[in-house]
Amino acid sequence: MHDGCGGNMTDGMAILQKIRMMGFNKNKMPMVHKFECESCNEMVEMATLEHACSCGMVYAVTPCSAMDSSRIKAAGKYV
Ligand SMILES: [Zn+2]
Asked: Is residue 40 part of a domain?
């Protein structure tokens, strides 16, 4: 199994732990995703697989899902 792909993982914390464990969390996204932070409503520009908003909310996505902004999940604040 090639991995870093979380299959259908929908839990942000599980995704975050997975990409940290695999060492992918600082990897660059294939494209920058921009979306509204669900905590502070500021615009987030996510360029790496793990990204923390200025408010502390951490977002994560697996490498295989990085093209799809709907697969980016919030893991929680200051995690
Ligand atoms: Zn925020």
From this structure: yes
pLDDT tens per residue, range 17-51: 999 999 999 999 999 999 999 999 999 999 999 99
- Nearby residues for ligand 1 (ion, Cβ within 5 Å): 37, 39-40, 53, 55, 57
Overall number of domains in the chain: 1
Distance 37 CA to ligand 1 centre (A): 5
Nearest to 50 by CA among 37, 39, 23: 23
Instruction: Determine the distance separating the centroid of ligand 1 and the alpha carbon of 55, expressed in angstroms.
Output: 4
